[in-house]
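Work Package 3 (structural annotation) set out to generate three-dimensional models for the target panel prioritized at the project kickoff. During this period the team completed the workflow that converts sequence records into discrete structure tokens, so that structures can be stored uniformly alongside our sequence database. As a representative example, we reproduce one entry of 505 residues exactly as it appears in the project archive.
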Amino acid sequence: MYDTTSTDAGLRAGRREWSGLAVLVLPTLLVALEINVLFLALPHLSVDLGASGVQQLWITDIYGFMVAGLVITMGTLGDRIGRRKLLLTGGAAFALLSLLAAYSTSPEMLIAARTLLGIAGATLMPSTLALIVNMFRDDRQRGVAIAVWATCQFAGAALGPVLGGLLLEHFWWGSVFLLAVPLMVVLVLVGPVLLPEHRNRDAGRLDLTSVALSLAAILPIVYGIKRLVADPTTTVMPIAALIVGTVCGVVFVRRQLRLDDPLLDLRLLSQRSLSLVLATLALAGVAMAGTGLLVTQYLQTVLGYSPAESALWFAPMGLAVAVGVTLTPVIARSVAPPTAIAAGLALSAVGAALLTQLDSTNGLGLTVIAITVLALGTGPLFALGTGIVVGSAPPERAGAAAAMSETSNYFGGTLGLAILGTVGAAIYRHHMADAIPAGLAAEAAQNARESVAGATATAADLPGVDATALIHAAHDAFTSGINTVGLIGGVIFAVLAILIATRLR
């Protein structure tokens, strides 16, 4: 039996549902802001709290680790106890923990607060998306609602660094955490009035073994990938983590297929449209995250912009996704979803291909155009694709389906950072192999081969002509890496466009 307080299926949403959507975008915007707003604050809080390099990594990474590890569990938990209840509980906890983070007095206290924030944050995204599915039963209205939801998600991600920079100009580093408090207060006060409760009354007990296995699979894999990206020379622990995570993942999958009421219903993947869209979301995430990583580094290390300036020039990528998502409901009125998604991915392929034309001297204008075109084309995928995923599950499993969509996006982005980041680094090292001046000390030469920053530091101790030549070589080598990653991204988008156009029905 399906328990709901919303209108019967088939009725169009009214004023209450649209007002409820305005409430639901608050946590969506918040989670997107929270992911990126901390980067500019990190140097300030590190000095104030005396955080070591390792502690800085945990401060930045632990939030994402917990969200990734628990989003599946929270999506399924919402199906069982009620999505509104989970959302409001998570929102209240997020507000209180944000206060704790803002007024942390030690690195350990901030790491603990960020860990708990990740747990609370994992309740927000699947709950908001599942409630949207339940509140908007009309396909066209649901498409518009999901487009609004996704627009806030990507606009928040784009504006996070910019907003963080503005706050840090006038306030202390804790102000970036206080952004959450007023938003969550509004959610907790208004949510019970405007948001209906939805839950599956026939759902069984939460399988704690599956919860543990999902954490044991996801967390080591995410950790291993992030560590390999951060330090490719240290491989033992990251590879061990990847092996452990993979083994636990296999055990998790086998258990889900045996259970009558699994934590994650993998049988949904037997639907070709669902599995194809999930794969497309993941692979598009690979291309977007990989190109985004190299573009932000290119802006800083090659073109010489500060982190704040780079964040400003990079913002069009997130804003373009938001624009593409916003336009999608209008496009979908006259174009079938597969056609709209495929055309958008073809446009993204063009944007990625433009990155192959960058040079190391004056590529700002072309860079902004390229990432804008690339991101704009993904709008139909994120709007219509997300709708296909959550619409493929029965209403009582909407939370689990929403979690699958979020997990696919997150893992795609994580893999993109690892794979395409490694490709860019390998090309850089290849081009720098013959660019090191003769007679340079072995350690200095190694530093120059590893990164543009290392080459710049090495050049500071060289004579003028050799220093200039080394820096130019490093810039050219890094630009070759971003050219190649742009080509790979273009191929990924083009292949996905063909698959969606020919296989999605």
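The first strand starts at residue 2 and ends at 4.
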